[in-house]
Amino acid sequence: MSAPLPSNDGRRLAGPGNSLPYSVFQETSSTKQTAGRSEARQDGDHRKIFISTGVISKAKGSAYIEQGGTKVMAGVFGPKEVQRRSDFSVTGSLAVELKFAPFACRGGRRAGGQRGEDREAEELGLVLAEALSSTVCLTKYPKSVIEVGVTVLEDDGGVVAAALTAAGLALAAAGIHLYDLVVGVKVAMRPGDRTLVDPSRAEERLAEGGELTLGYRATLEQVCRCNMRN
């Protein structure tokens, strides 16, 4: 039997200290399933999320969310006393304004021109207002209006869902009385009966079976908003 070589044998080549076994580079079933999705996600996985509150100094409450490449900021102002008689409400009201930053989409403003984009932003603001109004205890704010401003800094899919989550967090940070905290989620259908959770903009373009956006109150287990598009 030959004696073992000493540890300082110069004839041996030392391997790298951070080497990995070849098995980690082999394709697995989960890798095949996530082919084509950003961040190597499975069909039921969300994109990476970053959330921060108190990002707008002049707002009573604010929140910022990054959901993959989608970036949304929300601020809450008020409650303020209603100045115009036409806006008077005994139980209080909630107003939401949504805007897209000029650089929110790749290539500048969205297809359809400025008028089309402004109309879409106005419609999405109404959608957010309806969902959030059912979450805020408006009876606690008689003769007052709560204003929520939402700015889309980058649109990479799931804007309404991200805006719902950001606005809900901003309302909570502002100390507004809420029945529950609302969060948003979006799913898209792909060929082969695939349901993609939290699709990116590229995955939304390939959706053939429709899209569904939900506003959900987890503690109460209630859906406060449901939007479908075929």
Ranges where pLDDT stays below 50 over 5 or more residues in a row are 27-34
Percent of sequence in beta strands:
25-35%
Helix content: 10-25%
Indicate the mean pLDDT: 82
Q: State the major sheet.
A: 5 strands, mixed
Distance linking N and C termini: 75 Å
Overall 3D shape: globular
Radius of gyration: 24 Å
Structure summary, number of beta strands = 9
What structural class do you assign from the helix and strand content?
Answer: alpha+beta
Query: How are strands sequenced across the largest beta sheet?
Result: 1-2-3-5-4
Name the assembly state: single chain
Output the helix-strand order.
HEEEEHEHEEHEE
Per DSSP, the total helix count is 4
Structure write-up:
This protein is α+β, with helices and mostly antiparallel strands. The protein is built from four helices and nine strands; from the N terminus they run αββββαβαββαββ. The strands form two sheets. It has a five-stranded mixed sheet. It has a four-stranded antiparallel sheet with strand order 7-6-8-9.
Summarize the structure.
With 230 residues, the protein is an alpha+beta fold.
What are the salient characteristics of this protein?
230 residues, alpha+beta, five-stranded mixed sheet, four-stranded antiparallel sheet, 4 helices, 9 strands, 20% helix, globular
